[in-house]
Amino acid sequence: MADENTNEVVAPVEGAEATAPTEGRGPGRGRGNRGGGGGNDRNRGDRGGRGRRDDRRGGNRDEEQGEELIEKLVHINRVSKTVKGGKRFGFAALVVVGDGKGRAGFGHGKAREVPEAISKATAAAKKAMVRVPLKEGRTLHHDGLGHFGAGKVTVRSAPAGTGIIAGGPMRAVFESLGVADVVTKSNGTSNPYNMIRATFAALGEQTSPKSVAQRRGKKVADLLRRGGASAEVAQADAEAIAE
C-alpha cells in the first residue's frame, strides 16, 4: 500500500516538475496567476500585432496614391426627418478632386455627420477621376458645350493671363483640374449638382490634336497646316503639343 501511495504521489509531482518551467516564471506563483498572466501577454501581443498591421495598410494606401490631390468642397446640404423622438438630421456633401495636371472628378456622399459625408464624397470623387487634355498645360484645346438636366454650360479656351472666368461650382472644377486660363458661362439652373455634371460633360468632349491625328492616321503637323500656318510653324507647334 505504501508503494502504491508513493507511486500515486510521485507521478503528479514529476508531471508538475516537467510542466513548471514552461508554464510559470517563479515558484511563488499559482497556476491560475500564471495562466492569467500568459493570457494577458498573448492579448497584448495580439493588440500590438493588429496595430502594426493597420499601420502597414495605411502606408500602402499612401504609397498607392502617391500624389497630392486638390480637394474642393462645393456644397453641403442638410436634411431632417421627423421621427417619434424629434428630428433626425443628415448631411450630403459634394466634393471635387483633382491633381492639378489634367485629372479631376466629383462625388457626393451622405452621412449623419458632416466629416463622414465629406470623406465618402472624397472617396467617390477619387474613383471617378477622368483625364482632360490641356493645351500648354494651362487652358483647353477648343470650345465646348455641356448639358445636363436644366443646366447648360459653355467653356472656351483663353490666352495666357486671362485667368479662370468662372463662378461657383465651375471654378472649383477648373482649379482642381489645373486650368489657369478659361472663360465659361452657365445658363439655366444654379443647382450645383447639375452644374458640375454639365461641366464634366463639356470637358468629356475635349480632344487634342495628337489624339485626332492618331485616330485619322495623320501627323499633327499636317492637321495644323490646314489652319493656314506654314510648314515650319506647324512643325514647331506640333512638337510643342504634349498631348
UniProtKB/TrEMBL annotation:
It comes from the Bacteria. With S4 and S12 plays an important role in translational accuracy. Residues 41-65 have a biased composition (Basic and acidic residues). Keywords: Ribonucleoprotein, Ribosomal protein, RNA-binding, rRNA-binding. The N-terminal domain interacts with the head of the 30S subunit; the C-terminal domain interacts with the body and contacts protein S4. The interaction surface between S4 and S5 is involved in control of translational fidelity. Residues 25-40 have a biased composition (Gly residues). This is Small ribosomal subunit protein uS5. Belongs to the universal ribosomal protein uS5 family. The keyword Lipoprotein does not apply. InterPro entries: Ribosomal_Su5_D2-typ_SF, Ribosomal_uS5, Ribosomal_uS5_bac-type, Ribosomal_uS5_C, Ribosomal_uS5_N, Ribosomal_uS5_N_CS, Ribsml_uS5_D2-typ_fold_subgr. Residues 69-132 form the S5 DRBM domain. Residues 1-65 are annotated as: Disordered. One of its GO terms (cellular component) is ribosome. Part of the 30S ribosomal subunit. Contacts proteins S4 and S8. NCBIfam families: rpsE_bact (TIGR01021).
